[in-house]
Amino acid sequence: MTSPAQQNAFVHLAERSPQVTGADMVASLVPPPQFADASFDTYRADDAFPSQAEAKQTLGEFAGAAVEAPRRGLFRRAPRAPERKPGVYLDGGFGVGKTHLLASIYHAMPARRKYFGSFIEYTALVGALGYQQTVELFRGSDLLCIDEFELDDPGDTMVMTRLLGELVASGTKLAATSNTPPNALGEGRFAAQDFLREIQAMSASFETLRIDGVDYRQRAVDGHAVVLDAGAYESALAEAAASGVVSDDDFSTLIAHLAKVHPSRYIRLIEGVTTIGLRDVQQLTDQSAALRFVAFVDRAYDAQIPVRATGVALDQVFGDEMLAGGYRKKYLRAISRLIALTHS
Predict the structure, then answer these.
(1) Who's near 246: CB < 8 A, 6+ residues apart?
(2) Are 213 and 183 contacting, i.e. CB atoms less than 8 angstroms apart?
(3) Which of 37, 106, 117, 332 would give a disulfide with 181, using CB separation of 3.0 to 4.6 Å?
(4) Measured at the alpha carbon of residue 138, what is the angle toward residues 137 and 144, in degrees to the nearest 5?
(5) Tens-digit pLDDT profile for residues 184-207
């Protein structure tokens, strides 16, 4: 029998309607908890991919930090770092540590005013405050980190590139990442070229660093999400509820609810939750719903909230047609993260 304490520990995400103000959005522009203590020292470069150690060294110099030189193996601060462009763009497959490196830049740079957020968080802020007020908010800041820069929405992309252009002109340094799937036969470099083309006159402001490697999340777990039967699901949630707050939602109901909540509020949707439960997962057929679920997964992964689920395996939630389409890189990143969360 479920105890009253356990009953109080269960919530339904589909019943939550979080509100987020512009001030809340600004206050949240820091690295997610998973990377709260990220540093260049804790970034484990894979020796099989020299570009990782090279990027670590270059980004350390960009941030003004002392990092371990990849060849000499000595900690040193160069007496005079080479002159660098005001922006760096990290291009590569998902799971190679780009966000870790981006957070390392944030923590290492001795800046008074610095911000860290996902592309969607910045565009949501522009929507909440208006373009000019957002420019004034960030004007004079030392560093702006943009994780998961997106090229899917031309309007959002051009608003962001215009914003970044104004900030660079006022002395702000920029660091951005974007995701491309592994084994994409040059897709990463094409994405970098698209990015630089989109920012047009700003292209000279960015140094593009290609980071190769294997998704680190796949190094420790097998290639499939964990699926529970009804009994195991109930037991897993009851156990989790004994020490935390557990969400328990029908998958289709939650997907429908996500359409009523702006993606910038998804982080508040899962606030305080320590385990996410999803009943009767089904393969998604609507692309808009699938993209909203991707944004939800990103926030759950940032917060490192374990997921327990029944029904279709979460690595099968996006169909073959979706995986063959233009949002392939987003879906593959979400699958990688879902696999890791079901194993955590």
Answers:
(1) 9, 10, 11, 237, 240, 273, 274, 275, 276, 277
(2) no
(3) 332
(4) 150
(5) 434 444 455 665 565 555 566 778
Residue 2 and residue 275: Cα distance in Å, rounded?
A: 17
- Confirm if 310 and 319 have CB atoms less than 8 A apart: no
Which residues in 197-214 are b (16+ Cβ under 10 Å) and which e? ebbeebbebbebbbbbbe
| Rounded-to-integer distance, Cα 76 and Cα 69, Å | 7
Give Cα 93 to chain centroid, integer Å.
13
Q: Helix 119-129 vs helix 154-169: angle between axes, to the nearest 10 degrees?
A: 80
**What are 255-293's pLDDT values in tens digits?**
999 999 988 889 889 999 999 999 999 999 999 999 999
Give the residue carrying structure tokens 């998958």: 251
Chain centre to alpha carbon of residue 327: 15
CA dist 11 and 173 (Å) reads: 41
Asked if pLDDT for residue 55 goes beyond 50, the answer is yes
75-76 and 307-311 strand pairing:
unpaired
Alpha carbon distance 330, 188 (integer Å): 13
